[in-house]
Amino acid sequence: MSTGQVRRAPRSDGVRTRAAILRASAELATVDGLEGLTIGELARHIGMSKSGLYAHFGSKEELQLATIETARQVFDEQVIASALAAEPGRAALVAITDAYLEHLRARVFPGGCFFAGAVLEMGSRPGRVRDAVVTFQRDLAGLLQGFVQAGVDAGELPPSDLASLSFEINGQFLAASASFTLTGEPAVLDLVAMVVRRRLGLAS
Amino acid sequence: MSTGQVRRAPRSDGVRTRAAILRASAELATVDGLEGLTIGELARHIGMSKSGLYAHFGSKEELQLATIETARQVFDEQVIASALAAEPGRAALVAITDAYLEHLRARVFPGGCFFAGAVLEMGSRPGRVRDAVVTFQRDLAGLLQGFVQAGVDAGELPPSDLASLSFEINGQFLAASASFTLTGEPAVLDLVAMVVRRRLGLAS
DNA sequence: CCTACCGATCGGTAGG
DNA sequence: CCTACCGATCGGTAGG
């Protein structure tokens, strides 16, 4: 008896429900877009009432922002983590590329990379949702640039790569997501893996 | 009196109206998306009633398809034409890149490249609208690949470029549109111009 | 090309 | 987390 009665973890059901909602929301958003996503469709998709969703998120904008946060966590775990586990520099650039391509290959989201779609969709809009997407994009670009800088510092890459290499790799990520989503052809992913390696001087 | 009374050209007003509608539709679509575009918003934007639009296009899908056709014509005139005017091979690849970047710089569409947005938006959807976007993408990829082939045939490019160069350039176009739309920074366009030239062995 | 209208769905709220 | 509801807007049609 010592510590008293059994207690369920406070709100654990709510936390789990919220996570399930957000996961479904992120998936739907890669097909319908962050704006095209509707509360009604999401509610139907997870077997809940619309007002049930409003109990978790006070507005569509809050839902969108929470969805972006969830997608970011997925991206951090599946893509960024592999890069951080590698040696900064060329090895990290290869690692993040392979992890990104594997993220696509596994079809984690039905519409390809969440942020590739979101950046193109929200790029010319005002508001907090756009700002959140821009922040992600800026952070990713900064991470890539840091790897390039490390590669240059280590003598793995020429200093001229500081100007554009991170941008180029980012562009190949966009192309990979767009092309793989369009065609479903795994060869696209192998092609991009080769392109990046070559660009880094790591293949014929 | 010879040829009789003054006659207005048959339906010329209707043709002009239709063109104006489609131009506005293409502009709105680069901000709201091809799906996010609504008949009501478009009608308001051009000062016409919703049913006035339905007189020109029987359904939203027809409007979307006609909008894509209009955007394709703009792209053909402003981007493709410059490439076809150049020597096939490296010169054509430089020409299409510069024309594409100028198309962005001029902000022909407020949301950047119409098709960059459309491909990412429609990639994971079914239907005729997606098919039309895929067709554009396939045609552009084929055009680029033809230029690469010509460059290889002329000895300007190594045969190894046949595998991926056209894909890489396409990726830089996507990155240019996304990044320029996000930041509005013209330096992005200069960067991509340099990246492509370097990739073609035409700059330091 | 218009007014007037349709059923359905939108984002969101009241009240429990 | 639900039912029941709100005004606004959706794509689309009738009839002119």
**Which two protein chains have the largest interface (Cβ within 8 Å of the partner's Cβ), and how many residues from each?**
A-B, 40 and 40 residues
Q: Name the helix and strand elements of chain A from N-terminus to C-terminus, one letter apiece.
A: HHHHHHHHH
Uncertain residue ranges of chain A: 1-10
> What would you call the structural class of chain A?
mainly alpha
**Relative helix content of chain A:** over 70%
Number of helices of chain A: 9
Largest beta-sheet details of chain A: none
Question: What is the number of E strands of chain A?
Answer: 0
Oligomer: homodimer
Q: Please give the alpha-carbon distance between the first and last residues of chain A.
A: 69 Å
* Mean pLDDT reading of chain A: 94
Shape of chain A: elongated
Cα radius of gyration of chain A in angstroms: 20 Å
Strand share of the residues of chain A?
Answer: under 5%
In short:
Chain A is mainly alpha-helical and 204 residues long. Chain A has helices spanning 12-32, 39-46, 50-56, 60-85, 90-105, 114-122, 128-153, 165-183, 186-199.
Structure description:
2 copies of one chain form a homodimer. With 204 residues, chain A is mostly helical. Chain A is 72% helix and 0% strand. The first copy, chain A, has 9 helices and no strands. In chain A, helix 4 (60-85) crosses helix 5, helix 5 (90-105) runs parallel beside helix 8 (165-183) and helix 5 packs antiparallel against helix 9 (186-199). Chain A is elongated, with a radius of gyration of 20 Å. The N and C termini of chain A lie far apart (69 Å). In chain A, 42% of the residues are buried. The model of chain A is unreliable at 1-10 (pLDDT under 50). The first copy, chain A, binds a DNA duplex (16 and 16 nucleotides) through residues 14, 17, 38-40, 48-56, 58-60.
